[in-house]
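Schema walk-through. Below, the input block comes first and the output block second. Nothing else is stored per chain. Lengths vary across the set, and this one has 121 residues.
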Amino acid sequence: MEIRENVIVSLGYGKYVRSDKVFALEPIEDDRGPGRRTKVYVEDLKEPIIASRTETSILANMVEFPREVIEANVALELLQDIMDDIQPIGPMLRKSIKKEAGFDLDKIEKRIEEILKHEIG
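--- output ---
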């Protein structure tokens, strides 16, 4: 993999960095959520920048990847984002959504878990 030089990479919410200045990407495990997906370590900055995009999407903008790899990663990223948004929904609201809209969040969450386990390993 080769980093594309002088490419401006979006980190989300109006934050941008030059691709050749990024030296590390770290997924956020705790307190992850909208606006908090990845720590981006940039030359000459003491603290990492908190990005709202995942490390996979940032990396895809920084390097040359085949189109199929990018599309697969974007789809997995979307599933992970959906999972992150579904998880905090409590049982009473889930029951209400299922009753009112026929949208079974428990079933969707289990299916996403299966897909992510299969694809990620």
